[in-house]
Amino acid sequence: MPKRERLDALEEKISARRQGQVPPEAQARVNANMLGLAYRLLVEILVGIGVGGFVGWWMDKVFDTKPIWMLVFLVLGMGAGLMNSVRTVNEMRRKQDQAEAAKRRENEE
Fold this sequence. Notes:
- The protein is mainly alpha-helical.
- The chain has one domain (3-108).
- The protein is built from three helices and no strands.
- The longest helix has 41 residues, at 68-108.
């Protein structure tokens, strides 16, 4: 195989590999999006716990039943925060799947 053909073949292999890689700017954007998602999930869980704890504390104060309602609403707040987090993750995953499907269709055409 002549030297020029080997160089052309190597260049094709290198360009094919580079097409599969994510540019550093895009990777930084992906990392920032993931960090934002992590903070969003944390805030949703903490807000659920905080609101549930406050409502339970308020009900205990009104009905004079010290820790009962606060414990009940803390558990409900944890469940609500967790459900919101799961819902958010499912929504993000669905958007990502749609974007990947659109990209595949675009590459097929």
